[in-house]
């Protein structure tokens, strides 16, 4: 799921259920944030070092918190919980990449610090050539504008529209008010305060993120009955899935599935809506049942309203654009649709067939793991499914569709010995697993992790602002410990949501669409007041990501492009250019939002995966460059160019295979469908091989060129300075982190 869809889901479920104390919590958060930003902006920012590197005065606590907040986006709050509900701990491999921050602190920081760089592409210029710097700077800028900036703004607009369904300014959608508002708040303190403003506001946002997510964890764990109870539900027993029930074909709306609906909840006549307006008087229970039946069968307008009320249904039944998702989020929070009835979701075990697909009955095929969509027609239901339906649709609907029919038992349809066993407490999925093969995750995914944490300007810039190597290294160690927390505050809550749904304590929608896990838990188990903190955490994730990318773009443009063209520019001129560059990046992001909103969701998912294909060449030129004295500029450029071409070719083949599948068994089919974790490994091997091959065929770099830039050319003074920057505290803290990671890997084995 993309960040856009995750924000939509979160906004739909939580946006219309905030109370007075929740709004008060949000108000306090923004008051503190703006006060902190004002204090930081009032500090001196006269030189490029002040503006782009916070005067190189940042301490380790601020650096570590900023590393964490920059990394955590709204997709972590919602998306990781979704993978926890669907697949358990499998996705934790990525969060356990916390050790990559140790590599940044212990391996890369000494080279960055002694080379005096402002940007990571600048390091490539010092190690290889100006061409390498230009290539990486331009690619990074384009990627930031067309993904991180515009996507974050789009998500912010969706959330704001959900929280404020009534337009603030007549004729102007609150979506745009929210997107522009995020720019004005985040962009203003970033433009005026530079990296210092980003660092200190992210310290506050880290605290809000941890408190908000931890509240969901502890309350959810209490409700599910504790850790042991969770393991009994989520490991080694029948894997339950949620299936939506489709009405007969003759009652479909223009070919789109019409789902059976639950009875709409009965409201008291004087009940208040979340925004304080009285809701209209509702029908009694019998009338509600009649309305439910009519909704399930009636006009296209009615069916359309029902589809709008559930974004998950839209995603499962038709290929929609991100713009449609945004419209659904807006409609879901409209006061006329807040009480719209939900689709009926029944819980049933997933079936692992042993024979050919052609031999399966329709009831078995509907539950088989080979089935892509979790929907059931009425004649595919079991008696256990019907028993679940009886209490939620009302007597008239039940009598019409179910009362006079016979259904098989679940043991007849899916014998116990052939049911899939839930494996949520297992990090080590088999290599045949389509999404999480253990070998690819253990050896391929770290390539992406090392690229992101050790070479991406978006992350590394925080450590470049440190007072010293010692502060930078300790900041990475602290950030690494914070990086471990998503395993427990994001993934485990998803597993808890699965357990609560199986026990019937929260909506079974979680079993149908795991990405509903975090939003539903916020809505159904959190008390008033804590919901506001969690919404604040979502906004903190959005704003910290936005501020970080604004400042990184500004630094890349000013130091890697403008200063190269105008090398004699004054310090004040470069600060001014940096502020203007930030403003331009903001405007480009706003302009690109409508384009993103028109992209199809599946295509945008492909675009998001581009980092898996960008990482290998960048990883190779940085890490081989500091460990080997033999590789040179021609080898670096070859690896960068060929690596990027191969990565984009893989992306193109992946997209084409989705529209026009390649022939089974062909090279193109293999190239398009091999797990991206394995593809990372293959591309890295190719890049390293080409780098060495071309370097060996061309001139060897001189020792003077490499002084202080590789392990073999560091001077005695440089080595001594690095040695003096750490002591036993840093070693023990680093070893402790690695020990925790090993314990997690050892514990979650099923």
Supply the helix-strand structural class.
mainly alpha
Spatial arrangement of strands, main beta sheet:
3-2-4
Instruction: Tell me how many strands there are.
Output: 5
Determine the mean pLDDT: 79
Strand percent estimate: under 5%
Q: Uncertain runs with pLDDT below 50, 5 residues or more? A: 266-340, 599-607
Helix content estimate:
55-70%
The main β sheet shows up as: 3 strands, mixed
Nearest-angstrom radius of gyration? 27 Å
Number of helices: 34
Shape descriptor reads globular
How far the N terminus sits from the C terminus, by CA atoms, comes to: 26 Å
Word description of this protein:
The chain is mostly helical. It has helices spanning 3-14, 20-41, 48-53, 60-71, 74-87, 92-95, 99-115, 120-127, 130-163, 174-224, 227-234, 285-297, 300-308, 311-317, 322-332, 362-367, 383-393, 395-401, 410-413, 438-455, 457-464, 469-502, 509-512, 517-525, 530-565, 571-598, 601-608, 610-627, 633-659, 667-673, 676-697, 703-706, 716-723, 728-747; strands spanning 235-238, 240-246, 345-349, 375-377, 421-423. 51% of the residues are buried.
SSE layout and pairing:
Layout: H1 3-14, H2 20-41, H3 48-53, H4 60-71, H5 74-87, H6 92-95, H7 99-115, H8 120-127, H9 130-163, H10 174-224, H11 227-234, E1 235-238, E2 240-246, H12 285-297, H13 300-308, H14 311-317, H15 322-332, E3 345-349, H16 362-367, E4 375-377, H17 383-393, H18 395-401, H19 410-413, E5 421-423, H20 438-455, H21 457-464, H22 469-502, H23 509-512, H24 517-525, H25 530-565, H26 571-598, H27 601-608, H28 610-627, H29 633-659, H30 667-673, H31 676-697, H32 703-706, H33 716-723, H34 728-747
Helix pairs in contact: 1-5, 1-9, 1-15, 1-24, 2-10, 2-25, 4-10, 4-21, 4-22, 4-25, 5-22, 7-20, 7-22, 8-9, 9-10, 9-15, 9-25, 9-26, 10-22, 10-24, 10-25, 10-26, 15-26, 17-18, 20-21, 20-28, 20-31, 21-25, 22-24, 22-34, 25-26, 28-29, 28-31, 29-30, 29-31
